[in-house]
Design goal:
Blueprint: H1 2-26, H2 33-44, E1 48-50, E2 53-56, E3 61-64, E4 67-69, E5 82-84, E6 86-91, H3 93-98, E7 103-109, E8 112-117, E9 156-170, E10 175-190, E11 196-203, E12 211-218, E13 231-241, E14 258-270, E15 273-287, E16 290-292, E17 296-305, E18 310-320, E19 323-332, E20 339-350, H4 351-354, E21 370-384, E22 389-402, E23 408-418, E24 421-430, E25 433-445, E26 448-458, E27 461-470, E28 477-488, H5 489-496, E29 503-516, H6 520-525, E30 528-540, H7 545-553, E31 567-579, E32 582-592, E33 595-604, E34 610-618, H8 620-625, E35 639-641, E36 646-655, E37 658-663, H9 665-674, E38 690-691, H10 702-707, H11 720-730
Parallel strand pairs: 7-9, 8-9
Antiparallel strand pairs: 1-4, 2-3, 3-6, 4-5, 5-8, 6-7, 9-10, 10-11, 11-12, 12-13, 13-14, 14-15, 15-16, 15-17, 17-18, 18-19, 19-20, 20-21, 21-22, 22-23, 23-24, 24-25, 25-26, 26-27, 27-28, 28-29, 29-30, 30-31, 31-32, 32-33, 33-34, 34-36, 35-36, 35-38, 36-37
Length: 738
């Protein structure tokens, strides 16, 4: 009995095997291709082309030699929406015998899908033909007749995609075509009107893992608007490049911005609403071509409204290194570029950590620069992401930037942001320059900080104008266009040049200067520009000009020339043209109690070197004290004008701390030739005639006249020949023998 049963089972198995072996030759599966192709085209509302169908036994499946699904109406016909060179469909055995093959699962190897968003923001996959209306209930069957069988709904147990490829073309934002390769996906339990399971993993372009995965419950499919199909799942990123996702977030990522991202999120989509909640870590961050060394961590809760692509930040927290920053607001990712309306808030953030992010805002710090202090911020970022406006307030406490070539300090720097910024501070110290009670309107553009207008107290006086700081070089460059009143001259010169404890007084000036923000000596080397100045009630320390003039003019007898080590100045004014720390002037004028001075020449602000032509004019009172027109001898280096004022042209060389005064022979010769001298009221112009002083004739007779070159002889002149000899000797000629 057992043998008979075994024999029967063996026969049955053999018959089944024989049937399976001869089944492909008994069933012409390819005859169903036109019907399947037409049904697919009807449902998808797109052209569909199927290759030849073949039946395989182990496993029982139908092979399709190529599938092509065309584009929807309104899109370019090439390339097609989807192609696959090899498709395998498993079928139910009995459905084949009934002549109605029922597909249980599909396997697609290396399919290629082309996603296109047109200029109106519509995707090529988002519309399919709406299903036919549900037919009205059929009338009850007549007596004795069986009811017609209901049409079988299309279901799938499983769809498997291996090594697929998706290309994305965005005509709305005019982004170049991007290809995402090596996509594996598995879909299970698909049935019309029912949700199904989807597992997807994709390798994005770039180096590293570049892995994006999705594990979700999807559906039911929304015919007519596939993009609105519900999704409830979990997304994970592993070492994915931000730039590689740029085509899915067109306009939301600034130029020259990238990062390596890892994180996870819960994703839920219902209708036109998407919620996304999770965490993300960004490493190797580059923002606007500026590298950020510290990782950025984010926790977020987002709501996205389609088709506008409006992102609402319901809750968000960034950690920039150790700095927590809370975020809220909206991002209009549907605009190009994306529009921001986002609030950022942080309290007590250490500036040492924030310093690593300055490059993202266009501010570069030189190597070795250390930043200390804290930041409180409550800021709204509004407008296009490429150039947003910032509104709100910033407060920097105990700011200290040191090291490298910079040294900036501010104990309490506050900013009110309104597209630019209004800055207030009790004091700002940059190198040795100290600004107090600072108020300025500031704007930052590509690493250039512009403060205009800026008002401040500067070394006991007032400053107003424009300061521009270019932070891009290793040593920041500063440009100042300012007006000064009542400024302590010595403190300003000590802060910006080597002229320390040299010139004192109250300074008024208009200047347009540029310099590198370095130490005072190095700053002077980079100083360029022009400045007009006036120093009142001052003093030139360590130089007694009148004493030096008395040595040149060979006179004594004035108390002003004795005792004092410096020179009191009623006024010192002029214009300087400065090139690399070397100041040139043609109109320097000084007023003293004893007279006035004019000068032209060069002062080196780096090493205090001086090379100037100076003309001193002593008042008539001082001139009389020292001997008037009778001083000196036949080779006298002092002249006298027709107002009785002594005129002494000199050369000033050496350096300002210890200058050398010597007769200016060329200037004396020129004055004699022109028969013109300056006055104490205008020492820079030759306006009056010469009298006696060349010969030292106390009577001022013929010698005085001849000393004026070309004057007439008068009675009382006893030695006319000597007068001529003196003049000739002055010009370097020898006396002729009589």
């Amino acid at each position: 009995m057992r043998r008979r049963l075994i024999l029967v089972l063996a026969v049955i198995v053999a018959v089944v095997i024989i049937i399976l072996l001869i089944l492909p030759s008994l069933i012409d599966i390819d005859k169903y291709r036109p019907r399947i192709q037409a049904e697919a085209q009807e449902k998808l509302d797109r052209p569909v082309t199927l290759g030849k169908l073949t039946l395989h036994v182990f496993p029982l499946s139908v092979g399709i030699a190529g599938v092509t699904i065309g584009q929807a109406p309104g899109f370019p016909s090439q390339p097609p929406l989807a192609t696959a060179s090899n498709v395998s469909a498993s079928v139910a055995f009995w459905s084949l015998l009934r002549g109605e093959p029922q597909i249980k699962s599909l396997q697609l190897t290396r399919p290629q899908i082309e996603l296109i968003q047109n200029a109106n923001g519509v995707w090529n996959f988002s519309s399919t033909k709406a299903p036919a209306q549900t037919p009205a209930p059929a009338p009850p069957p007549a007596a004795g007749k069986q009811p017609a069988a209901a049409p079988t709904q299309f279901t799938l147990d499983k769809v498997t995609i291996t090594d697929g490829q998706i290309a994305v073309t965005d005509l709305k934002t005019k982004q170049p075509r991007a290809v995402y390769d090596h996509i594996d996906a598995k879909l299970t339990d698909f049935a019309p009107g029912q949700p199904f399971n989807l597992n997807l993993s994709a390798h994005l372009p770039g180096q590293g893992k570049q892995l994006l995965s999705l594990d979700a419950k999807v559906g039911p499919l929304q015919t007519g608007n596939a993009a609105a199909t519900p999704i409830d799942g979990h997304v994970a990123l592993e070492e994915a490049s931000l730039a590689s996702l740029g085509h899915f977030f067109s306009g939301a990522i600034p130029n020259k911005t990238d990062a390596v991202m890892s994180g996870k999120a819960d994703l839920k989509s219902t209708g036109n609403s998407i919620t996304c909640k999770g965490d993300l870590t960004l490493k190797q961050v580059v923002i606007r071509d500026s590298k950020i060394s510290d990782p950025i961590q984010a926790n977020y809760d987002l709501a996205i409204t389609r088709p506008q692509d409006l992102v609402q930040i319901k809750a968000g927290e960034l950690k920039l290194g150790t700095i927590p920053v809370s975020l809220s607001g909206t991002i209009d990712a549907g605009a190009t570029p994306s529009n921001l309306n986002v609030r950022l808030n942080t309290q007590g953030a250490p500036l040492s950590d924030l310093a690593h992010l300055t490059g993202a805002f266009g501010v570069s710090l030189s190597p070795g620069t250390q930043v200390k202090g804290t930041l409180n911020a409550d800021v709204m970022a509004k407008g296009p992401m490429s150039d947003p406006q910032f509104l709100g307030s910033l407060a920097l406490k105990n700011l200290d930037i040191s090291g490298g070539s910079s040294n900036v300090r501010a104990p309490d720097l506050n900013m009110q942001l309104h597209g630019g910024a209004t800055i207030t501070a009790s004091s700002i110290t940059a190198q040795d320059i100290v600004l107090s009670n600072v108020r300025a309107e500031a704007k930052l553009t590509d690493g250039v900080i512009r403060l205009s207008p800026l008002t401040a107290d500067l070394f006991g006086g007032k400053e107003s104008g424009t300061w521009t700081l270019d932070t891009r070089p290793a040593t920041p460059l500063c440009t100042v266009n300012a007006k000064l009143t009542g400024v302590d001259t010595n403190k300003l010169l000590s802060a910006t040049s080597s002229l320390k404890n040299t010139l004192y007084g109250s300074l008024a000036a208009d200047g347009n200067l540029s310099f590198a923000l370095s130490s005072s000596t190095n700053l002077a080397r980079t100083l360029n520009g022009t400045v007009g100045f006036n120093v009142a009630d001052g003093e030139l320390k360590n130089v007694n000009i009148l004493k030096a003039l008395s040595a040149v003019g060979r006179f004594t007898g004035t108390a002003a020339a004795q005792g004092k080590s410096g020179t009191p100045l009623k006024r010192l004014s002029g214009n300087l043209n400065i090139r690399n720390g070397v100041a040139n002037t043609n109109d320097l004028v000084a007023t003293l109690d004893e007279g006035s001075l004019s000068a032209k020449g060069v002062v080196n602000l780096v090493d205090q070197g001086v090379n100037m032509h100076m003309t001193a004019v002593l008042t008539s009172g001082i001139s009389k004290q020292v001997g008037g027109s009778a001083i000196g001898g036949y080779l006298n280096s002092a002249l006298a004008n027709n107002k009785g004022e002594l005129v002494i042209p000199v050369l000033v060389t050496g350096n300002l701390s210890n200058p050398t005064f010597s007769p200016d022979v060329n200037a004396i010769a020129e004055m004699k030739l022109k028969n013109l001298l300056p006055t104490s009221g205008d020492p820079g112009k030759l306006t009056t005639g010469i009298i006696g002083s060349v010969l030292g004739n106390k009577a001022g007779g013929l010698g005085g006249v001849l000393g004026g070159i070309g004057g007439k002889r008068t009675e009382g002149d006893k030695k006319p020949q000597n007068a001529i000899d003196s003049i000739l000797d002055t010009f370097g000629k020898k006396k002729k023998k009589q």
